[in-house]
Amino acid sequence: MNPSCNRLSLRHATRRVTQLCDRALAPLDLRATQLSMLREIGRLGPIALDPLAEAMVMDRARARGSTILEVILDICRS
Questions:
Q1: Percent of the chain beyond pLDDT 70?
Q2: Cα–Cα distance between 44 and 59 in angstroms, integer?
Q3: Side-chain-side CA neighbours of residue 27 (13 Å)
Q4: Mapped to the 3 state alphabet, what secondary structure does the chain carry?
Q5: What's the rounded Cα separation, in Å, for the pair 26 and 77?
Q6: For the whole model, what pTM was predicted?
Q7: CA end-to-end span of the chain, whole Å?
Q8: What's the CA gap between 46 and 72, in Å, rounded?
């Protein structure tokens, strides 16, 4: 089987799983990426954005764009 076809199939599958997770988390006003970041923050403790992005193997812009700060602020207000 063609490796590029395998990569495409994997991308489609992971996108579908993310969509299913996002739907399940919708009542909590969370997305799968936000939940992953919250779990990582819980595991690591207080952490700056750059080390968090590095620990999650994502670039800083994507980490900032995930609205995690809004989620954390909402949780703190609750």
A1: 74
A2: 18
A3: 1
A4: CCHHHHHHHHHHHHHHHHHHHHHHHHHHCCCHHHHHHHHHHHHHCCCCHHHHHHHCCCCHHHHHHCCHHHHHHHHHHC
A5: 19
A6: 0.64
A7: 51
A8: 12
pLDDT (tens digit per residue) in 39-66: 888 888 887 778 888 888 887 777 666 6
Q: Which residue has the tokens 């609750």?
A: 78
What confidence score (pLDDT) does residue 15 get? 94
- Using an 8 Å Cβ cutoff, are 29 and 74 in contact? yes
The tokens for 56 are 């999650």
Helix axes 3-25, 32-44, angle to 10 degrees: 80
Closest CA to 40 of 21, 57, 60, 55: 55
